Amino acid sequence: MPFCSQCGNPVGGADAFCSRCGARQPTDAGRPIRANDPLSGINPRTASILCYIPGVGWIASIVVLASDRFRHNRTVRFHAFQGLYLFVAWLIEDWVLRPLLPIVPNLHLHPILRAVLLGMSIFMMVKASHEEAYSLPVLGELAQKSVAED
Questions:
Q1: Count of beta carbons in the 10 Å neighbourhood of residue 136
Q2: Is 150 helix (H, G, I), strand (E, B) or coil?
Q3: Would you say the pTM of this structure is higher than 0.90?
Q4: d(Cα 83, Cα 136) in Å, to the nearest integer?
Q5: Distance between CA atoms of residues 85 and 88, nearest Å
Q6: Mean pLDDT confidence for 10-20
Q7: What is the phi/psi pair of residue 28, to 5°?
Q8: Are 56 and 84 spatial neighbours (Cβ–Cβ below 8 Å)?
């Protein structure tokens, strides 16, 4: 529950004024700032970068997609969807391809595929840090379709 910026009295999330002292509450584009919003202090560029961290970026992607703060930011949502699809590619490589690759002797594709996926993650973190919505070949098309469906 948010509190008054002047007297500390509990105020509702939609209250523009405190009921005790009458002080105007801080707003963000005409809406009161929600004190319990965990993403209120994160900028869109940082949210986009977090979506591509190997292994844990899927958590950031889900949080970004579920948040009200980035609901209308198509670029951040694109990065979140593309980060999720890149994580699915990691899972496919780890759970499907890795068990199948030992069938073919002397073919060491597992480290190569891991390096390619890691390179794609790093490349996308750099692109997101420059606020570019670069579209990866297959994953980017899926991400664009997912953002368009919102």
A1: 17
A2: coil
A3: no
A4: 10
A5: 5
A6: 78
A7: -130, 105
A8: no
Tens digit of each residue's pLDDT (9 = 90 or more) over 75-128: 999 999 999 999 999 999 999 988 887 777 777 888 899 999 999 999 999 999
Instruction: Give how far Cα 143 sits from Cα of 2, 29, 50, 76, 86, Å.
Output: 35, 28, 16, 11, 10
| Residue 47 Cα to chain centre, angstroms | 5
State how far the Cα of 126 lies from the Cα of 140, in Å rounded to an integer: 16
Residue type, 14: A
Q: How far is the CA of 138 from the CAs of 18, 108, 115, 129, in angstroms?
A: 51, 24, 18, 21
52-80 residue pLDDT tens = 999 999 999 999 999 988 999 999 999 99
**HEC per residue, 36-94:** CCCCCCCCHHHHHHHCCCCCCHHHHHHHHHHCCCCCCCHHHHHHHHHHHHHHHHHHHHH
Residue with tokens 């570019």: 132
